[in-house]
Design brief:
Chain A has 42 residues and is mainly α. Chain A is built from one helix and no strands. The chains are: A mainly alpha (42), B mainly alpha (578).
């Protein structure tokens, strides 16, 4: 039964992986903005 | 090099230069909120957009808010385009009944079109539905171009303003870029392209009978051919004007339905450099010193003409292996001569080399010939044009803000040499601006070299190479140069439709685009806060031939020092051992 759902679960996991890459990148960019802001104040 | 070759090049550059002042002046008016001839048409649309989105156009932003708006906009764009591709099979406008795009390819394509790169690891006509092409890809052609233009305008305001915190309103700058500049120009170009034979239809692909039956690999007779069509002209126009480059068809503008005639070819080539070149004049106009804009345009134009001459010469000289065999490769009344492999007969060598140079000078990436088939030195030109950081015209907005980073480096070095505080346009260039400019110069270089190094080490990177040896290395180097500098053209020969390249090139595109925008906006914010310093006898003039040559020298030295070792392993070796 569980193996019947396996392909669908793998597909969803793949989508989540790539959406996670996008999320991590955007968070890192937000971090870069804050870092540049800190450097400017020094 | 015949006089006819030069005539084509001179005509192209003359028409381009003639359009710089009127379009550049118009764009300056748009960004300064002045009334233009488009205001009666677009003014109500603009106000309607602000009303339904809740944007208050009079409210200005500091650089950090501006950057976060760009980030938020990017987040929405990346996720929606990703989901659109994944769900396209169950969405409308899919007469071909195409399936969902795979997760890694959806990621790569979403990043590619959001970052104005338009790298395509797929054949458009066999992978993307009409809905994905129009609502996803063509829309992002407008949005990604508008983001680049908005960031440039914010930087220009940083130079033009003094003692303030704000650099404009990101929503307003993007909206105006689209409504007043990109849509009107695209509409005109799309209609002209349709008149030349570029297709524009929602109809499904056509089946036609072959004149002569052929056999498929299994030995079965094939009597019919599928001819792909679609809404091509509307995508073609913004593809060129927005320096996007992602074609409707797999072979891009070499396809007769994307680029059917010499006139369509001329107009599409003109559209590549039109906005990036004109933005130099916009810059001069907005900082109230048009000489500065002309100086930057001159620097770009000089690099462009020299590199173009090398490409045309290399391709017109032909293949030396054929020369040894006694093949006549000279241009004459009955043959184009030179290296015609991978080139369309209706465009010939000059227009293929001109396109290749223009598309890689700008971060366009569309092609009308296959760069992989260029001679080693001819192929070196587009590769190095990208590696210079896409600052020779460059992408719409991104090219000029990249060049302004080099200007900051150039005035800083010049200041160190003569022992004075560096200044540019009345603003002191200090360590903070220099740090940010250095980040802008270094990030693409790191992405290209590191990405190439990893690709030649891992099995999935090496297995995609179509040609062994130095040419195969060039293919990988070209791919990472293209992605990291947001160009999008491909050397072909490299089978990048695998998990490794989709992820690696996707990350390179993200870093090459957004990690450059952040320091640009930081510089804009820093400069806007500074006081204006009046010019004195100690000020280095930045509109003179001396400074233009100095700026070119800095761009070339950085490009040469960064990439000479890598280029030596690729095109140089290939040229020497052939």
């Amino acid at each position: 039964m569980i193996f019947g759902f396996l392909p669908a679960i793998i597909k969803i996991m793949s989508d989540l992986l790539f959406l996670a890459i996008i999320a991590v990148f955007l968070l890192a960019t937000a971090g870069l903005i804050l870092l540049c802001q800190r450097l400017m104040k020094q | 090099m015949t006089s006819f070759i030069w005539l084509q090049i001179v005509l192209y550059l003359a028409v381009l230069l003639l359009l710089v002042k009127p379009l550049g002046g118009y764009m300056a008016g748009v960004y300064q909120g002045e009334r233009t001839f488009m205001s009666p048409v677009m003014g109500p649309v603009e106000r309607f957009v602000y009303r339904i989105t809740g944007v208050r156009p009079q409210e200005e932003m500091d650089w950090k808010t501006y950057a976060f708006v760009m980030l938020l906009f990017t987040l929405v764009g990346l996720v929606t385009l990703y989901l659109l591709q994944r769900l396209q099979a169950i969405l409308p406008f899919n007469p071909q009944h195409l399936g969902a795009v795979s997760p890694d390819l959806s990621f790569n394509t979403s990043v590619s079109f959001n970052s104005n790169t338009n790298w395509q690891s797929y054949g458009g006509e066999t992978t993307m539905t009409y809905l994905t092409q129009m609502v996803g890809l063509a829309v992002h052609n407008f949005l990604s171009a508008a983001i680049g233009m908005a960031v440039l305008v914010a930087l220009i305001r940083g130079f033009a303003r003094h003692s303030v915190e704000t650099i404009g309103n990101a929503w307003v700058d993007m909206t105006r870029s689209i409504l007043y500049i990109l849509i009107p120009l695209s509409l005109i170009l799309a209609v002209v392209l349709v008149s030349q034979g570029v297709v524009q239809t929602f109809g499904a692909s056509k089946q036609t009978q072959l004149v002569q039956s052929v056999q498929d690999p299994a030995g079965q007779p094939v009597n019919e051919q599928v001819i792909s069509v679609g809404p091509v002209a509307s995508q073609e126009a913004i593809k060129q004007l927005g320096t996007n480059g992602g074609g409707f068809f797999n072979v891009n503008s070499a396809h007769p339905f994307e680029n059917p005639t010499p006139l369509s070819n001329f107009l599409e080539m003109l559209a590549i450099l039109l906005i990036p070149a004109s933005l130099c004049y916009t810059f001069g106009k907005m900082v109230r010193d048009t000489k500065q804009g002309w100086a930057l345009l001159t620097a770009m134009m000089l690099i462009f003409v020299v590199m173009l001459s090398v490409a045309v010469w290399a391709e017109q000289s032909g293949n030396p292996v054929f020369t040894k065999l006694g093949v006549d490769q000279t241009a004459s009344a009955v043959q184009p001569g030179g290296n015609m492999e991978g080139k369309e007969l209706r465009f010939g060598i000059t227009n293929s080399a001109l396109w290749a140079t223009a598309t890689t000078a700008a971060s366009n990436g569309s092609v009308n010939s296959m760069h992989d088939s260029f001679t080693p030195l001819g192929g070196l030109v587009p590769m190095w044009m990208m590696q210079l950081g896409e600052v020779v015209f460059g992408g719409v907005g991104s090219g000029l803000y990249g060049m302004l980073a080099f200007v900051i480096v150039a005035v800083f070095i010049a200041g160190l040499m003569i022992g004075r505080t560096p200044e540019y346009l009345g603003k002191k260039i200090e360590s903070y601006e220099m740090k940010m400019a250095s980040i802008m110069v270094l990030i693409p270089v790191v992405c290209v070299l590191l990405g190439t190094a990893v690709a030649v080490l891992v099995p999935m990177g090496k297995s995609a190479v179509g040609n062994p040896g130095s040419h195969g290395f060039s293919e990988i180097l070209y791919a990472f140069s293209s992605a990291s500098n947001n160009n999008g053209s491909a050397f072909a020969g490299l089978a990048t439709k695998n998990m490794f390249y989709n992820i690696a090139l996707g990350i390179a595109m993200l870093l090459g685009r957004y990690w450059l925008m952040v320091p640009v906006l930081a510089i804009a914010g820093s400069l806007a806060r500074k006081k204006h310093v009046p010019a004195s006898v100690g000020t280095l003039p930045t509109h003179t031939p001396l400074f233009i040559i100095w700026l070119i020298t800095v761009v070339i030295i950085v490009g040469a020092l960064s990439f000479f070792p890598a280029l030596s392993l690729g095109p140089f070796v290939e040229h020497l051992v052939r």
